[in-house]
Amino acid sequence: MSVTNNAVVSAALGYVEANPAELDVVRDLVILALLGPPITLSGTLPAHLACRAVVVTPDWRVLQTNDTVLPGWQFPGGHVADEDCSLLGSALRQLHEFTGIDPNLLRPESTLPWDLAAMPVDPVPELDEPEHVHYDFLYLLHLAARELMPEMALAAGTDARWVPANEVPGRLGTKLRRGSQLAAASR
């Protein structure tokens, strides 16, 4: 069973309900999902989804990967697969594929994305892929302690690093800093 456009619209609207100032980020996504072909298929243009895992430890370090597909450090994840039953499930599956981290070691913050970003993608002539937009659904996943996790079994050509949440830029970085401050205040 694949993730339907209705499930995408539901997640996007739930995200906007929790983040009303970010309506502009999801408006076009909702319209495309309501009126177009399956938005979760990687070939759907002018935009489609990608799901990513933002793994955070109690000391608010986040996991980033660097692989041969996308240049630079990213949060592990990518395109939704036909066998994915949910967007969160897609992020967990891909995290496991990229890093070997057992999804059972993680506690999702929510079934809704922690952040949602529209990311322009340059054309890739070798793949006959035109310019398009990835709507990245980023899910916050809590890992009790890095020490509980066995050595990561990284996919070929993938590197990993743990960075302090306060070094993550942009809106996601702001949300992570706020989350770390709330966690520190509740201790």
From TrEMBL:
Leader sequence residues? none
- Which protein are we looking at? NUDIX domain-containing protein
Coiled-coil region? none
One Pfam family linked to the record: NUDIX
On the tree of life, the source organism's domain of life is Bacteria
- Using the record's annotation, list all stretches that form the Nudix hydrolase domain: 46-185
